[in-house]
Structures are given as C-alpha cells and as structure tokens.
Amino acid sequence: MASGPTTGPIFDGEALRARYLAERDKRLRRDGETQYIEASGDFADFVADPYVEPGFARSAVAEDVEVLIVGGGIGGLQTAAEFVRRGIADFRIVEQAGDFGGTWYWNRYPGVRCDIESYIYMPLLEEVGTVPAERYSTGAEIFAHCQAIGRHFGLYERTLFQTRIERMDWDAGAERWIALTDRGDRIAARFVTVSQGPLAKVKLPGIPGIRDFTGRMFHSARWDYGYTGGDQNGGLTGLADKRVGVIGTGATAVQIVPRVAEHAKELYVFQRTPSAIDIRSNRPTDADWLLSQEPGWQRRRMDNFLGIVSGKPVPEVLVDDHWGDLFLRMGELMREARAAGETPDPHEKMQQSDFEKMEAIRARVTAEITDPDLAAKLKPWYNFLCKRPLFSDEYLPTFNRPNVTLVDTDGRGIERITETGIIANGREYPLDLIILATGFDVGAPPHKVGGYKVTGRDGVTLAERWEGDLRTLHGTQLSGFPNFHIVGGTAQGTTAFNFTHTLRMQAEHAAEIIAHCRSRGIAALEPSTDAEERWHALLEAKHVDHEHFYEECTPGFLNNEGQFRDKPTFVGGTYGGGPLEYEELLARWRSKDMASDLVAPPAAAERYRATG
Ligand code: NDP
After folding, report:
1. Which of 101, 247, 353, 572 has its CA 20 to 30 A from that of 64?
2. Ligand 1 interacting residues, C-beta cut-off 6 A
3. From CA 579, how far away is CA 582, in angstroms rounded?
4. Can you list the domains of the chain with their CATH numbers?
5. What is the 3-state secondary structure (H, E, C) of 346-386?
6. Per-residue pLDDT at 565
C-alpha cells in the first residue's frame, strides 16, 4: 500500500488505482468515437450561424493575391498580424462566420470564459493595447479583442466573411493555389495558410431518438438567446417556466450550468462522467501592474506558463494559478527525494502528485455539497490529466439549489431522447429545452473541420494523405503541397494548454518561410520527402509513451474515447519534446535547415533548370 505524503492528504494509492480502473471499465464502449454524429447533412441545422442577419449576398470575387489565409479565428488573426509585421500586405482572409474570433465568435453561451489567464491567452495585447478586465476573461471580451486585432492590423477590408472555401487546387503552371468558395469566388494565391481551430467541429451525441424531440434543442456553440432570453452574462428570463436538460459535464457545461440554474424552473444535468473541478479564483486586473510591465512581457509570461506546465524548471513562477499545481508539486517531490539521497522515479512522483491533486478535488466536493449522496456522485475517479482540467467556483454549489437535479447515469449516459424529454436510468425526464454541451471533434484535420478539399500538385488530396501513412514536416507542411502551411497543426506538430501560444509559434513559422521566399524571389517551395522522413524519425525517437497513461483513463476525446491504440491520441500524436522545445526547434530549423529541407516542386525545378 502506497500512502500519501505527511504534508498532503493521505491516500491509499492501490485502492485509488483500482477504483479508477473500475470507473474506466464502466465507461468503455465499443463504438468509441463513432458514438458521436457530425453536425452536417440532416443535422446541419445544429451549426447554422444564429448571429448573422439572414439573406447576406455580395458579388463574387475573382482575384490574384500573394497569400490566402483560411480562417479568421485566433490562428488566422495571428498569421495576418505576422504578415503585416513583415510588410506582406497582399493577402486575403476567408472566414465562414460573420466576424473574426473563431471559437469566441461561435461560443456565446451564458457564462463563457477562458480558463487560461487572459494575459497569456489573448494574443497581441501589447501591440493592440488591450487591458483585460479580469484575470480570466469573458468570451465577449476575447471576441471584442479579436475584433480589435482586426481593426488594428487593417484586416476587415481584407476579409470575405460568411464565405466558405470549397476547394483548393495547386495549379502547377501558374504556381498558385486556386481556391473556390461557396459564394462563387475564385481566388488565386501563391501561398495558403489554413487555421481551422481545434474547437470548430461541433459533435452531437448519437443518442437514439435525438431527432424525435419536439421541444427546443441546440448545441452550446449555437446558443439561442431568442428562446432563453438574456445574454452571455446571464439574465435568461425566458427559462422561468421551463424544464431544461443539459447533456454533458465538460468545460462548457461547467460554465453554463450555474447561469441556467439561476433562471430555469427546473434544471436537470445529465452526467456520464463527473468532472474534476479545480479552484478558479478570478480577480480584476490591476491595470497599473499590467501597464508597468517591461516591453516583451507577454511573450515571457507565455513562455513561463508553458515551462511550468511542461514540467520544466522555471526561475520564477509568473503564472501561479492551478494549472501548474500538478507539475510544481511533482518537481517538489522529486527535489525532496533527491535531498533524501534517493533516485526518484518521475512517473511515480507524478502519480503521487496526481493522487494528491485529485484527493484535494474530491475533498472540495465534500466541502461544497451539502447532501453526501449527491457529493459522492459528483466525485471524479481518474487521473487529473485524463480529461481536460476544469476550473470553477460556481459549478459545484449550483447542485445545492432546489431547482437543480443531477441525473447521474453511473457512466452509462443517456438511453434515449423522446418527443417530450430524456430517458436516463430507465426513467423519463420531461423537458422543454435540451442543451447539448457535448463538445467538438478536437483532433480533426483542417480539411475536415473546414469542409474543403485540398488537392496537391500530384492530384493527391489532403484527406488521402491524412488517411494514409501521414508524413509532414513539423505538422505544418507537406511534400506535394507547395506553399501550403497549417497553423494550428497538432498532428505531428504540437499543442499546449495555452493553445494561442502554439498558434503563435506556427503563425510566425509560416510567415518567416513566406518572407524567405519573397525576399529571394522563390515562387514555390515544399518539404522534401527526405525532410519529412527525418521529421518522422525524430517524432518516433521523441515519442512519449502516453498510451500506458491513457489506457488507464476514463474515455474522452484525449484518448480517442478509449480507443487510443487505433490512431495517435491528441497529445500522443504531437512532438514528444513538448511545445517549448518544438518552438526552439522551429527557430533553429529556419536558420540552419530551411534552405535544404524545402525544395522547389518538380515542375518549377525543371523550369528553373531550363531557364538556367
Ligand atoms: P467535452 O468533450 O469536454 O464534454 C462533452 C461532455 O458531453 C462530456 O461530459 C461527455 O461525457 C458528455 N456526453 C457526451 N455524450 C453523452 C451522452 N450520450 N450522455 C451523457 N453525456 C454525454 O466538451 P466541452 O464543450 O465541454 O469542452 C471541449 C473543449 O473545449 C474543452 O476540452 C476545452 O479545451 C474547450 N473549452 C474551454 C473552455 C474554457 O477555457 N473555459 C470552456 C469550454 C470549452 P463523458 O465525460 O462521459 O464523455
């Protein structure tokens, strides 16, 4: 029996592990990721844009630009800003939504906030001059900041909104990508960058009867304020006489539930797996403190956070919130063991830190929930990083309200949706409104999220490359796809809790390569297959065995819903050295290897040879 440290909660490690595995087993299901259905075809109404006036029309555009940026979320905005900084002015942005913002355009549900400190999450704060009002910003504030980035860098006049790219084909003769849109536009572009985001492809639960419900039903990423009343701050007065069901207890639901509970006549929260709810502790920004920072502070702070959550030693903890606890405590345990003359096993110390963290999280449930039976149902039994960590000071106490019922399904989920409500645990709950807080297809490749076809110079599509034995360089470029850059490439690239940091890395990378081509009059470059093979070999050499960790996890999108051996997991498919090392590696590659690893596509190479 392993026991806890003298300073932290006492626990029985073996008993905890056995409980974790038993809880996982309850939730493993054969249909894995296919339990979800895409919000397309018969389900396309779930993702219609509720924020634009219907009937938008404009004349089709036919143009030739230097760069086409696909996506106007934070990835596309940072890419555009990098272009402006480098004097690249001839670019066009195409965005499906009615404005910039991406995730923050679509997710306007009540209570929406970012869990990452605003000072590191909101990009370009120093350049744009935004001072976030609070440490953890509201979605509305982040959306407004995205709009401010658009104004600051003059991006509005360069953007086609409410426009979806349908296909992009490399024209070898013209050495350009030809992009066609759903509004009849034809855009020829020497370079293309795509930023589709990890949270753009809405997932619906494949629950039998989902189409039978005759009340109102919507996904959290398309909130219907016409029905609920109120806005992102709450005030949902339309729910005063309504019975509301929320399906899901993830990061989104944790924010929605307290706001809905304030107004709904009855609220039923359908839980398959309890979430681990850590301390939020939001506070207003001290503007004097922020404005007195030395130039370059944001980049330093971003690096500091990423260092902490990558388990790297940092000289000073600048971002001292609860994201870092697990890693800082692990470092402490390692140091303590070394000081005692031991040779500590990092996995063991990480597990100890994790048990401590989760014990504290479970103790918090006991402290917050008045009914012990209810508290037992709200306790999560898995390792902290099995699911995306959540932070809220409001969610748990909401369950003490008399109008709120937790419908715990003990891992089984909902059985059926009927014309009038939801069946769970064999009982029907009559409802007026069902809110699907069931998340997104987080690891989907860009062409799938964007819903477009990309055909490279040899007629092979991006989808075919993805379905085969994928080879990329840095997860951002592919041989056969000249001048094509993925910004937000997680597969074979990187990811981080602070996703805008990873977007910045890859935006800078694309902009540097494009600036390199421009300054040397190079028409087209793509990675050589040798460079891709070397990257692949490095990925293998650096691969971290996440499989063992995820095997013991309760299912979720981080372990492909328990089918983690079928394809790389979201984190397992990234560069194993972590995001900071990845960023350094990209910078080194640009100064040392770019000129040899990027080659002219064959047709262009032949022409160069012919013309001497
Ligand atoms: P998640 O994928 O995290 O959660 C989906 C929820 O739906 C889970 O609780 C899941 O249960 C539940 N579910 C699915 N199918 C069923 C079913 N048949 N019956 C009952 N329950 C079901 O989605 P979210 O939208 O909450 O979060 C997605 C990501 O978005 C986060 O990981 C985060 O990266 C980001 N996000 C960030 C926020 C922030 O910064 N504040 C806020 C919101 C989102 P189970 O756990 O059992 O699978």
Report:
1. 101
2. 113-115, 199, 205, 207, 247-253, 255, 270, 272-273, 388, 413-414, 437-440, 556-557
3. 5
4. 62-201+442-542+577-610 (3.50.50.60)
5. HHHHHHHHHHHHHHHHHHHHHHHCCCHHHHHHCCCCCCHHH
6. 79
